[in-house]
Specification:
The protein has about 375 residues and is an all-alpha fold. It has 17 helices and no strands. It has helices spanning about 5-30, 35-50, 70-75, 80-105, 115-125, 130-135, 140-155, 160-170, 180-185, 190-205, 215-225, 235-240, 245-270, 275-295, 305-310, 325-335, 345-385. α1 (about 5-30) packs parallel to α6, α13 (about 245-270) runs antiparallel to α14 and α13 crosses α17. Keywords: Cell membrane, Membrane, Transferase, Transmembrane, Transmembrane helix.
Length: about 375
Amino acid sequence: MDTARIVSLALWPITVLMIIHRSLILGVNGDRTDDFTPVYNAGLAFLRGQAVYGENYNTVDPHYLYPPSGTLLMAPLAYIDPERARWLFIVVSVIALIAAAYFLVKLFGFSASSVAFPAVLFFFFCTETVSHTLIFTNFNSFVLLGEVLFMTLALKRKDLWAGVPLGITFAVKPVLAVLLLLPLLSRQWKVFVGAVGVPLVLTALAWPLTADPMDFVKRTVPYLGEARDYYNSSIAGNGAYFGVQPWLLYVLRIAFVLMAVFSLWFLYTQYRRTDELLWMATSSGVLLATSFLVLSLGQGYYSMLLFPLLMTVVRPGSVMRNWPAWLGVAGCMTFDSFLSTRWAAFGRAIEYNKVTWGWSLLMIAVFCVLLFRWLDLREQRATVEA
């Protein structure tokens, strides 16, 4: 029996048990943060013709922030009681995660019977990002599935269909909007039909059915643009929590944007034609990690959207083949808590900074790898010309 077969036999029971634990035990138990109840209440208000966007945004409780199109998609959950609706949402989220792992493995050339599938599933469910998505009962699982389906269909040049999963995620939360740069660069214009058309159609359907649609524009959208100082691992949010000077936060945000611009330029010029999968998966990671850091809101469980970037480690030329990058991954994805009863201030600093530091280190590692490759290429060209 070969090594891969032995590892697969060992991983499957451990992975299945972990999936059950994360969903049936931790997910059903829940936690002090509850992302599902605001969604359920908004869906119920929508069905009853009541106001949806009348929350007090001055509290630190989870708020309902989905647009009317997202309300329309979530509203059917309110036809059943809150507890069973939440259980159903957890079950469907687990199915979405398993499907995302399956399509990600297939995208990188592995079969479902290979050791890659249980290995990817094991990694998924041992991370903080997946665990807290299930515990808090958030929509992120479906966003990840939409991202992987978009990449799969776009690489197969099924452009009209490729935009549909993106469009569905945009209708609820537009966290993947930065990925539209990829079909723009590759001139896959048909992707935009589904990506833009689906949320527009859903918005047109939901707008007249929502009691207070303009409140989303007048109240919720401005709130989304604010860098809140709680449950926010972006540079602005983290800096606001720790009282960092605003000028330094601007410098850091500009620095990461410049690193991203160089990285995207080099990836496009060097890899788009030679390894399109590596280009797309790496560029998506750069775009998303940068958006988490420099925009107003970056929450730790967004990190699951970086899974395609991490999966590139199996391909030659990957920017993930170095230990600093994986130290960054550990920072933004570890399920461990660093809060300490003995060294309270130190533990608190590590715990509340680990996601921001993890994203930052990952971006710096990717930038440095690509910078060194560019310098090597420049030196080789100078040698040839001499």
